[in-house]
C-alpha cells in the first residue's frame, strides 16, 4: 500500500519548510510539465554537444548505429521502442565513462519510397514515365528531404542522444561509394553474376523480389485436372495445376522414370490444348509418382522447379505474361487479359472442350509481395544475383567460434543459423529508378559487360563509346547490409572506423533477422574481417491491448507522438522499455502509460519535498561523516543494492527488471518510507541530525536520478538541475557505483523489523476500520534481546507512524486476553480490543456482511449449476460469473476468519 504515512497537511509542511514556496516553484513548479522540460533540455543537450562522440584514446569506445528508418513517412511505436532501448543503452554507457557514439541515419528504402511517391503523383494524374527518370528522381529527393525532417523531429521528441554531426543516408555520396566497392569486389571474386532465371516478380511494383520479401498467406484455391491428348491419338495423360493460365507456356509433361504407368509414354508427345503445340513427355526424378496422377505439366518460364527441370532436359522457356501480370502476345487469344481474368476464361474454355474434367477445392500457401501485397508471380527474367554459399560458409564458421555475435535472447541465433544453412542465391536487381543503380555498362558494339567503381564512357575491349548503364537498381538490403561500417567511412580507413568499429550492440526486431541482421554479419566478415557488432538485442513487436498486431486495416495503431503529447516522452519511454523481456511481444495499454506518468509525478513531488527542506543547502554542504540514523543507513544500503542490480541487469539488457527495481525502490523505499521518516529530523531542532538527513536525501536523490536518467531523461534533468549538484548536465554525470562503506546489513535488518511492525499495525487498523488518527494501545513482545534493542531504538518512529496512546515494548509481556495480534520475524504485537472497537457492534457488522456474501455465493452457484444457462451463455459471461464467485468466496473466507478471531478473543 502506497502513500499511507502522510499525516501533515500541505499547510503544515509549508510551515515546517525551510525554503519559501515561491523559490521552490521557480526551481520545480508544483506540477511537472513534460512539454516544458522536453522543449528546454533537448536543445540544451544539442547546443552543449553532449551527444557528440569524441575519439578519446583514454576511453573505451561504445557504438550503436541506429537501424535506419525508411524515409516513407512517420515513425511508429515499434520505432519508438527500438530507438528508446538504444538510447537507454547509450546514455548508460556514456555515464559509465565510455566514449559513446549513437549514430543516426535513414534508409532510402527503394521500393517502398518509390511506391509512395508514385502514389502521390497518381493523385495528380502523372506517372513516373511521364516525368522520365531524372525528373522523377528529383521528386523522390524532394520527398526524402521533407520526411527526413519529420523523422528528425520525432527523434527529438523521443529524446534520442544522437550525434547528428555523423548522420548518414544510404544514398549519400560516401555510402554510394561503399555500395559500388562491395558490388565490384563481389563481382571480381565471382560472387555476383547475371543470369536468366526464375525470380519472384511483383506485378504491381513491376520489380523482382528476393525470397524473403515474399510473404506466404493461406489461400482457398482450386486444383484443376486436365487431360492432355497424346499426339498419336492413342489416349491422353492427366495433369493438374492451381494456375491453369500458365499452361499456355507449357513445354513438356514430366513423369517419374520408375513409374510403370508411364514408362511406355516417355519420349512420346502430347498436344497442348488451346495452343495446339506438340510437347514431349520426359522422365525426371523430381516428379513424385504418389502425388496426383503422377504426371506434371512443365512450365519452365513460370515455375522455379519447372525451370530447373527444363534446364536438365533443354526445354524451351516461354514467357506468356508481361511485367504487369497481363498475358502477352505468346498467350494467343488471351493477349492483354489480366492473369486472373485469363484464368477464369481458360477454365471456361477448357471445360467446354472437355479438357478440364475435374476441379477440387485446394487450400495452399500463396506468395504475396511484402511491399505491395500483390500475388507474386514466378517469372523468368534476366537479373543480377549474389552467390551466397561461400558467404554463408564463412558466417557459419564464425558462428561456431568464440568470437561469434551474441544474440539476446540466445534462441534467436538458431533462427539465424537455420536461414544461413538453407541459403539460396540472392536476386539483388530491382526494376526501379530510386536506389543505387547497378554499376554495370553494356557495349552495343561488342556486347562486353563492364562492371566498374567509376562511371564508364569507353569500352575497354573495343573502345566504343556506345555504352548503356544497366537500368536496374540494387535491392535496398544490399546497401543497408553495409550500415555498421559504411556509416563510419568504409572503404576509406577513417579514424572513426578505426576507433568506433566494430559496433557494440544492434537493437532490432525478430522480423528482420534474415532481411538485415544476417546480411550485415556476412558483409562485415567479408569486407572488414570482423563481426559488425558484439551483441544483437532482439525485441518483439508491439500489439494492441487485445494482442492484435497493429495495422491500418484494423485501425488500432497508436502514434507515439500522440502518446508524448498526452503523457510526455518519459512516460512513453518507461512504458516501452519496461513492458516486457527481450525477444517477446508486448501489448500497449494507455493505462500503463498513465501509471508511469503518475510514477514521474511521484518522483517530482518527492523532489519538491526535498527542496522545501534544503534552503541554503549547497552541494559543498553534503556531509555523511556525522551520525547516521537507522533510516539513513537503511536507505543508503538499499541504494547500494539498487545500484548493483540496475547495473548488472542493464548489462544483460533486462530493462523490464531494471524498471521494476527502480520503481519499487523509488516508490516504496525512498518515498513511502525514507522521506516520511526523514520528516522527524528535518522538522526537529537537532541541527546536526537535520544536516545529515539533508545530505542523505540529496545524495540518494542524486544517485537515483542518475540510475533513472536513461529511461526518463527529461524529468531527471529538470530535477537534477534544481537540486544541489556538480556538473553541467545529468546526461554526462558519472554512473553510480557501489560504495561498500554504505552497506549496512544490521540497519537493514532493524529497519525491516520496524517496517513490519508499522505495516501490521496499519493492516489491523484497516481490518477493524480504525483510522490512523485514533489513538490505540500497542504492545510489542520482542523474541530476543537483539530485536528488543532494535525496537527500542525505533520507538520514536513507531510512535510517529502507529500513533499509540500507550506503547509497551517488553520481552516479559503477557499475552492480553482480548486483542488483535500479528506474529512476525523477531516479535509479536498486540492491539487490545478495549478502546479499539466495540466488540459486539463489530461482530454484528461482520455477521451481516457474512450473510450478504453467503447469499451472493448461493445465487451464483445456482446460476453456474443451471444447465440451460451454461449451454446458452457466452463464454465471456460464464467467465465473469466464475470470477465473481471466486471474489465473493475469498471475501467470505476473510470474514469467517475475522469472526473466529474476535469470538475467540
TrEMBL record:
Its EC number is 6.1.1.9. Residues 836-870 form a coiled coil. It is found in: Cytoplasm. Residues 40-585 form the Aminoacyl-tRNA synthetase class Ia domain. It holds the Pfam family tRNA-synt_1. The keyword tRNA processing does not apply. A motif ('HIGH' region) lies at residues 69-79. One of its GO terms (molecular function) is valine-tRNA ligase activity. It is an enzyme of class 6 (ligase). Keywords: Aminoacyl-tRNA synthetase, ATP-binding, Coiled coil, Cytoplasm, Ligase, Nucleotide-binding, Protein biosynthesis. Belongs to the class-I aminoacyl-tRNA synthetase family. ValS type 1 subfamily. Monomer. The C-terminal coiled-coil domain is crucial for aminoacylation activity. This is Valine--tRNA ligase. It comes from Brevibacillus panacihumi W25.
